[in-house]
Amino acid sequence: MNVQKCGCKENRPQNSVRAGCSSCSTNPHKMPADSFKVPAVPISRPLHTSTKVNLNDNKEPCSSGLKCDLPGKKDDKKKSWSLSDFDLGRPLGKGKFGNVYLAREKESHYVVALKVLFKSQILDSEIEHQVRREVEIQCRLRHPNILRMYGYFHDEKRIYLILEYAKHGALYKLLKERGRFDEKTAAIYVRDLTRALVYCHAKKVIHRDIKPENLLIGHNWELKIADFGWSVHSPSSRRMTLCGTLDYLSPEMIEGKPHSYAVDIWSLGVLCYELLVGLPPFDAKDSSQTYRKIRYVIIKYPEFISEKAKDLMGKLLVINPEQRLPLTSVLQHPWILENAPEGAVPPPHNPEQGQHH
Ligand code: AMP
Fold first, then answer.
1. 9 is an annotated ligand-binding site residue
2. 113 CB near ligand 1 (under 6 Å)
3. pLDDT tens by residue, 111-154
4. Nearest CA-CA partner of 138 in 231, 74, 70
5. Where residue 279 sits, what CATH number does that domain have?
6. Can you give the pTM of this predicted structure?
7. Annotation says 209 is catalytic
8. Where do the annotations place ATP binding (predicted)?
9. Residue 233 CA, distance from chain mean position
10. How remote is the CA of residue 95 from the centroid of ligand 1, in Å?
11. What is the mean pLDDT of residues 268-295?
12. 303 near 343, Cβ under 8 Å?
């Protein structure tokens, strides 16, 4: 498999199965305390800005014609954002191409996450198109279970993405603290992710990189899809090449076949399993074994998994993409209806609650 992207995120082990970047090792818990108070409900004042990203020249706008909204102070549609508009707070995490900081827009006091990417690294890694696509797609999406991207700006060396602040961080971190989730909590996350994917697919967006590292948790413990770096507008002939975990890739993707919306349905099944069990279903000592397990859909369910949960995962993890359960039917599946009825929200997570094993 051709390596273009490092899939490493905080905490997921980087072993031979998950060839990745060894430099990503920030522990956000060691960061200093917030330098300002985060309001429970962000103050919102609508703003339209049409800052444009061009990674090569910060004077010439790109042709994407993007328009993003940032609740904030400015009414001037032409005026773009700059770093001086924000007070910077503590680092929230580290990705391969830069860091994410808590930030507050100075005038409105609106709290956001500022993702800072280094242009040199983006150009060296040849992921300029990926970043552009991430911005173009994520700026346009509006759903309670999708992380908002309010806008972006850049200076000579960096690109700054202005993102909704997800107070409780990455779902992956929560999962590692808990070991695994009970069926009710897992079903609520699966339901909310399904709703977000229904919305994305209706907008002709395939995410293609659903995994716990790319799911953030908001103020009310609600799930939010983040990181649209691998997403595409369908139809697309774009092929994917990546490093990082194989665990979430569908059979058609690992075989380099054409793929479509159903890759997200497969990943939903993998995520459901990892939330309930604590490890992805095709986890193995090395990537060739993971590959084999995915190819032949070899799954073992621990005894504590309910029949209804197994039934749902069995209908999502199907080799033939066309035979995977449609997302709208996922929302009507008995396991979801029983464990995640309308209005049910994820319970608050207390790291001291101890682990499920
Ligand atoms: P990324 O570069 O997007 O992979 O982000 C690296 C880490 O920063 C994530 O794993 C999160 O812990 C944290 N992070 C990223 N975006 C946000 C956000 N919008 N709100 C809170 N934490 C974030």
1. no
2. yes
3. 999 999 999 999 998 889 889 988 999 999 999 999 999 999 99
4. 231
5. 1.10.510.10
6. 0.82
7. yes
8. 115
9. 17
10. 7
11. 96
12. no
